[in-house]
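Lab meeting, item 3. Inverse folding demo.
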């Protein structure tokens, strides 16, 4: 990202305003709003367009006059800018319904009310790429800033929160919608207040990716081609069968499936001596090779090497394993924290850790625990 600079964004265009004040850095100091509303303006590939307010308390989608009537009935003394927080989503979609471009702004009172929040506006393309962030300046102008790359700490209630998000997904897309996999948001996804990214199979059989976020207590969904780097690689049935046969024949028990630069592989452990292996399927056959977890210096570029040094020196992480998925310059790193937990990190080509998640059920986690207790020698 470039250094902060004066933007020429000025006032927001109609239908491109928003507010996202969840209990996080996105909320300015002061009393929390009483009502959280989403205004959505959508332009589709077939030329059609729509815009409406989503007001949970009203139980309906409202047009401008309907929203004004709701405010008059529910906000005393004309205090809309104090009590109503509006997230405006202005999106352009492709023929599949996925985002081409999107602008989110944080507003008070209505879709054209005062800008607020940090950032007050974010714009991006596709699945939160080429993101630009702006803060509100005097008289409604906007100042472009470098998006913060710090990560808020997830609360202990994260598992319960995810369960609530699954209920939201089914209420939006239908009770028969199947959640194929879900992951936590990356740093940039977090900047637009997305808390989860899910891969769904809709009741009609169509599969889509979407990000789910929260505007205060009101959920919203952005459909885009989000990457699925937290999902286990899925093997075709014939390859899965060949892996199972190979594991049984060699006396191995299997752990996770992962995708590295050589393709998909299933990590397995010997029942006889505890040694670790990789089972690599290919066109219905499978080969077994030794699995030697390592973090080769040649895997990192200069920026990623800086991240690795910082993680070791300041977070006191022990780097256990690292690999690329063969499709990008991102590096996946598995580390052990001082408290014994195992973490999977994703570090992008600029050396920014954009995502991390628990990896306590991986083979390397089991191997590390054995090494710590002395059950396995290097």
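The presenter then showed the designed sequence:
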């Amino acid at each position: 990202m470039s250094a902060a600079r004066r933007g020429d964004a000025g006032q927001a265009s109609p239908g491109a305003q928003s507010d996202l004040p969840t209990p996080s850095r996105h909320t300015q100091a002061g009393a929390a709003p009483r009502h959280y509303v989403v205004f959505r303006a959508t332009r589709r590939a077939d030329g059609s367009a729509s815009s409406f307010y989503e007001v949970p308390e009203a139980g309906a989608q409202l047009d401008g006059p309907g929203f004004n009537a709701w405010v008059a009935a529910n906000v005393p003394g004309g205090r809309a800018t104090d009590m109503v927080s509006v997230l405006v989503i202005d999106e352009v979609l492709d023929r599949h319904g996925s985002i081409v471009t999107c602008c989110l702004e944080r507003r008070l009172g209505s879709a054209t009310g005062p800008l607020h929040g940090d950032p007050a506006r974010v714009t991006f393309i596709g699945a939160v790429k080429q993101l630009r962030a702006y803060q509100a300046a005097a008289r409604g102008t906007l100042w472009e800033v470098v998006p913060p790359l710090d990560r808020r700490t997830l609360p202990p209630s994260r598992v319960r929160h995810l369960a609530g998000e699954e209920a939201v997904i089914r209420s939006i897309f239908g009770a028969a919608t199947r959640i194929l996999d879900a992951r936590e948001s990356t740093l940039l996804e977090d900047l637009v207040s997305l808390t989860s990214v899910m891969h769904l199979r809709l009741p009609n059989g169509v599969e889509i990716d979407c990000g789910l976020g929260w505007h205060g207590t009101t959920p919203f969904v952005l459909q885009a081609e989000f990457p699925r780097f937290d999902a286990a690689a899925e093997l075709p049935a014939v390859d899965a069968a060949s892996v199972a046969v190979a594991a049984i024949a060699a006396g191995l028990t299997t752990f996770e499936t992962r995708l590295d630069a050589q393709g998909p592989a299933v990590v397995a452990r010997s029942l006889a001596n505890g040694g670790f292996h990789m089972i690599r399927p290919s066109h219905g056959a499978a080969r077994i090779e030794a699995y030697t977890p390592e973090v080769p210096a040649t895997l990192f570029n200069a920026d990623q090497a800086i991240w690795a040094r910082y993680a070791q020196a300041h977070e006191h992480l022990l780097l256990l394993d690292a690999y690329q998925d063969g499709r990008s310059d991102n590096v996946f790193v598995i580390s052990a924290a001082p408290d014994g937990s195992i973490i999977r990190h994703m570090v992008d080509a600029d050396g920014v850790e954009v995502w991390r998640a628990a990896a306590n059920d991986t083979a390397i986690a089991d191997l590390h625990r054995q090494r710590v207790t002395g059950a396995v020698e290097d």
